[in-house]
Amino acid sequence: MKAKGIHPGLAVIIVGDDPASRIYVNNKKKACEYIGIRSEEYALPAETTQAELLALIDELNQNDALDGILCQLPLPKHIDEKAVIAAISPDKDVDAFHAVNVGKIMIGDYDFLPCTPAGVMELIYESGIDIKGKECVVIGRSNIVGKPMAMLLLHDHGTVTICHSKTKDLAETVRRADIVVAAVGVPELITGDMVKEGAVVIDVGMNRLPDGRLTGDVHFESAAEKAEAITPVPGGVGPMTIAMLMKNTVKAALLHHNEK
Ligand code: NAP
Question: Could you tell me which residues are beta bridge partners of residue 138?
């Protein structure tokens, strides 16, 4: 890319001083530096109005030196996240949250995949696990993780069930799964007795306990006794999410310069 004069640039917007968001943004900037992506941080105070944020996004959309725009979520309560996601130009939407990109994923003809589900798929591929015909259970139905996760497993011919807070018998449903993806936000909700012998268990959850420890949605020790493969927290899906952000930014830069 350098030889062709392509130098990917990513705008990273952070509003307010949420400590978890600060850590995520710093990690993303560090990854950019590591692989040679130019990152520009826009740190705005918590009182920033929605109009001010939308004006900045408009400016970044038009900035030819930037290929990707990331706005770290969650945003302060007075800002409508949907309006912010909709304002980012779909071709700079490296998080793949914009409705245009979500629609493209749905029909299986996309440029960008959302980073966390894409990272989970990469873990599955790299581990040589075949999804075709497998019972896949995704726990969680958020727009950024659960729903696209289910869609990607479906594209790869999994038989997919999505569970959520109204699911009647979560334990019984999870017990059927050859591949379990937990994206809930409830510490250690999935325990070993819910895991089928030989299942693949992927833990997306990142939960900060009162004692400061970071834990996933899966009780690692008991689930690991049953699972053929399992991801830890921290150190599993989290770093993959960042890697996929880098991949999307590179792709955005290539598309921007009419290269595939
Ligand atoms: P979210 O928007 O809060 O969605 C949580 C989902 O879990 C909802 O669909 C909810 O059901 C469901 N749920 C809640 N309690 C449940 C229960 N007891 N049984 C079954 N389902 C239940 O969260 P998210 O943004 O998808 O994130 C999920 C987790 O992943 C969080 O811990 C988050 O920090 C983590 N995360 C990690 C990464 C990473 O890079 N590793 C990236 C993004 C998120 P309803 O829809 O019925 O409310």
Answer: 162, 181
